[in-house]
Amino acid sequence: MASYYTYLISSLPVLSFGEKPPFSKEEFLRRCEGAICGKEIRLLASVMNGEQAAKSNSIVLKGAYHFDSALRNELVRLRAVRKKIDPHRYLRGEDTHDAHIAGIATSAIRNPSILEAEKALDLARWQSIDDLARRRYFDLEVLLAYALKLSIMLRWDKILSADKGAALARAVSGN
Description:
- With 175 residues, this protein is mainly alpha-helical.
- The protein has one domain.
- 65% of the residues lie in helices and 0% in strands.
- The chain is built from 8 helices and no strands.
- It starts with a helix and ends with a helix.
């Protein structure tokens, strides 16, 4: 089956961080059917489910995975300093240090609002995905970047539409 990346990608709406997602994960995958092969649709589905990033040959997926891993490791280091414990036990993947990522993590840790801190971390992830997909136009890498960004949007849609009263009641009751 031929892949029709140009048609498919140009038919997808532009994604903007902080806005409502234009459609669900299922609708995104449905739009891809018929334009790309089943193997690529399965890869997109696994990406939307938070899988495959470390094992893929994709530049976008590997880069997004390494950025996220470095960001999480930097958060571990900062939290370990606060608790006066050794962070090495909790680090995952390659233990690299990047000043830019350290700045993002430090800013998030210092933010008094947990929700705003998490939003800043996801915005950094979003910008990293944009950087990884830069100068790519109509190929699978662009679709993978789109899937990662749509996943972020769907996560925030779920967070913002959650019943906060019920969540508080569950937290207080210990369930």
